[in-house]
Design brief:
The protein has 12 helices and 5 strands. It is an alpha/beta fold. The chain has a 5-stranded parallel beta sheet with strand order 2-1-3-4-5, with helices on both faces. Helix 2 packs across helix 7.
C-alpha cells in the first residue's frame, strides 16, 4: 500500500511515540551532580547494546541484502533528516578512506543538503515530495538499496524517499527507534532499535543517535567484509592517502607477512599503494599483473584468490 503524500505531510500527534516520552529515571535530571549525570548516562547507554542484540536478525538480513546489491553493481543510500541524516552522511563519508570504495557507492542524503550538516534545518524534513525527488535526482533503480533513518519513524522526507524507492524497484530498509505497532512501515527490512525514552525527553541525538550509529557501523562494515575488503580483521582495501594511512598499510603488511618495514614499503610501492594486491603478490609469489588477475577472477576476495594460487 502506498503512502499518500497528504497524510505523510500531516503526521498524527507524536506525543505517544516512545522517543517522545519522558524517562522516569531522569525526572530529577536538573538536580544531579556532574558525577551523577555521567553515571546516569552510562546506565541508560547500556540499553543501546540491548537494542542492537534484539535487532540482530534484521541487521543480518540487511547486511546480506546490501552485499548482494553492491556486488551486482548497485549502490547504498542512507536518507534522513537532522541527527539521523547526519549519521548517514557520516557513515557514507567514511567508506572511501576505510574501504577504498568510489564516492558514489555509499551515499548519504540529508534533508536540506550539505548546509544542514552544520546548521539545523529540521523544517525541511516535513516535505514528503522532497524525499521522492531525492530518489529521482540520484536515479535510484532496482539494483540499489535505500536505508531510511528516522528515530521517531514519522519523518515525511524519509517516508517519501522510501515510497519512491519502492516504486523504482529498489530494496528498502527502515531504521527507527519506535515499535512497529506505533509507526508501521512498508519496507523489505524493518529494523527497530528500541532504546526507550531519552534522559532529556525527545532529544533523539542521545540514545537513539548512539544506537543508530552502531547499527550503521554494523551495516556498512558487515557488507564490506562480505565483499572481501577485509582479510582477517585488517582493512586490506584501505586507501593509502596520507602518512597515517601509509603507516597503517605498512603495519598490515608486516603483520601478515614475514617482511620488515623497508621490504614492506618496497612491496607497497610496487603494488601501486594497494595493500590487498601487495599481499596477493607476496603471499601468492606472483607479479603484479598476475596477482591482480587472480583477485579479479575471485571478485576481489583475497582468501579464495590465495587458495587458488596455491592450488595451481
Amino acid at each position: 500500500m502506498s503512502i499518500p503524500a497528504s497524510a505523510a505531510n500531516h503526521p498524527d500527534d507524536r506525543g505517544h511515540l516512545l522517543t517522545e516520552q519522558a524517562n522516569p529515571r531522569s525526572a530529577q535530571l536538573d538536580q544531579l551532580s556532574p558525577l551523577e549525570l555521567v553515571d546516569l548516562f552510562n546506565q541508560e547507554d547500556q540499553r543501546t547494546l540491548e537494542a542492537i542484540a534484539a535487532a540482530r536478525e534484521p541487521l543480518a538480513q540487511a547486511i546480506a541484502t546490501i552485499t548482494t546489491a553492491l556486488r551486482q553493481g548497485g549502490r547504498l543510500f542512507y536518507i534522513g533528516a537532522g541527527t539521523s541524516g547526519r549519521l548517514g552522511v557520516l557513515d557514507a563519508a567514511e567508506c572511501p578512506p576505510t574501504f577504498c570504495t568510489p564516492p558514489d557507492l555509499v551515499q548519504g542524503i540529508l534533508a536540506g543538503g550539505p548546509a544542514a550538516l552544520i546548521r539545523s534545518s529540521e523544517g525541511l524534513e516535513d516535505i514528503f515530495e522532497d524525499g521522492e525527488a531525492a530518489m529521482a535526482d540520484r536515479q535510484v533503480n532496482a539494483l540499489d538499496v535505500v536505508v531510511g533513518i528516522t528515530a521517531g519513524g514519522t519523518t515525511p522526507y524519509v517516508k517519501g524517499a522510501l515510497h519512491a524507492a519502492r516504486q523504482r524497484g529498489a530494496k528498502t530498509v527502515f531504521i527507527a527507534c519506535v515499535p512497529a505497532d506505533q509507526v508501521p512501515a512498508e519496507v523489505d527490512i524493518d529494523i527497530r532499535l528500541l532504546v526507550g525514552p531519552e534522559l532529556l525527553a525527545g532529544s533523539t541525538r542521545l540514545k537513539a543517535g548512539t544506537v543508530t550509529k552502531m547499527a550503521l557501523n554494523i551495516l556498512s562494515t558487515g557488507a564490506m567484509v562480505r565483499l572481501g575488503k577485509v582479510y582477517g580483521n585488517r582493512m586490506v582495501d584501505v586507501a593509502v592517502t596520507n602518512s597515517k594511512l601509509r603507516d597503517r598499510a605498512l603495519r598490515i603488511l608486516c603483520d601478515l607477512t614475514d617482511l620488515d618495514r623497508a621490504a614492506a614499503a618496497e612491496l607497497l610501492d610496487r603494488s601501486g599503494q594497494q595493500v590487498k594486491l601487495a599481499l596477493m603478490m607476496h603471499l601468492g609469489h606472483l607479479d603484479a599483473d598476475t596477482a591482480q588477475a587472480q583477485l579479479t577472477a575471485h571478485q576481489g576476495q583475497l582468501r579464495p584468490a590465495l587458495a587458488a594460487a596455491e592450488g595451481s
